[in-house]
Amino acid sequence: MELFDGFLFNLVKKSVTPNSDKTLMWISLSIFLFYLFSDPLIISVLGFDILHSQITYLFWFSFDLVCLIIILLISWKLNLSQLPAKLYITIGLTVNMLLFLGMHIDINYFYHYEHWWFWGLYSVTVNMMDVMMVVALLCNKDFLGLVRGYQFLTRSNRNSDLA
User: Fold this and answer.
1) Residue 73: what pLDDT?
2) Which of 73, 77, 102, 103 is nearest to 90 (CA)?
3) Which residues touch 57 (CB under 8 Å, ≥6 apart)?
4) φ, ψ at 95 (rounded to 5°)
5) Is 8 left (phi over 0), alpha (psi -120 to 50) or beta?
6) Which terminus of the chain faces fewer neighbouring Cβ atoms within 10 Å, N or C?
7) Helix locations, the chain, DSSP H
8) How far apart are CA 127 and CA 78, in angstroms?
9) pTM of the predicted structure, to 2 decimals
10) What's the CA dihedral at 113, 118, 123, 126 to 10 degrees?
11) What is the pLDDT along the chain (163 residues), one digit of tens a residue?
């Protein structure tokens, strides 16, 4: 639900300053729609029982992958200095995808059905990534210093390639 708040915030912000860039609003809408249509309650209303399926985590992995591709297509013109939320969203969706894939493999190939440390890591990390993405959509600032770190690393790699 908090992703819906992020979309509404960006929609109102866009309406207040109509000539500003719409990219963050479109990113917010994309994430909101993908999270809405991957929600188990919405899916059950459509007649699918995703929670009792062997492909639940693979389904969520696929939804996040398509969402990430669409977001990268929407924001391909803007660099990280103009749109810091792009890096936060990319990291959040990628970490979530890796965790979804890990859970799918864990349950379907290693047959873990009792709680163990990876499930705790999954639960905490997915929620932290979701909160990080919401904050990034609301403020569009480099609040954790990830953009600065990314720029430092890419600058360091370029300098070492030139030496």
Assistant:
1) 98
2) 73
3) 100, 101, 103, 104, 107
4) -65, -45
5) alpha
6) C
7) 2-16, 23-37, 40-45, 56-74, 85-108, 117-139, 146-162
8) 27
9) 0.91
10) -130
11) 576 778 888 888 877 777 788 999 999 999 999 999 999 999 999 888 888 899 999 999 999 999 999 999 999 999 999 999 999 999 999 999 999 999 999 999 999 889 999 999 999 999 999 999 999 999 999 999 999 999 999 998 777 665 5
Burial environment of residue 76 by CB neighbours within 10 A (0 to 12, 13 to 18, 19 or more): exposed
Reading the block at residue 101, the tokens are 């894939």
Specify the DSSP class assigned to residue 114.
Answer: S
Look-up: residue for tokens 């908090």? 2
33 C-beta neighbours (distance < 10 Å), count: 15
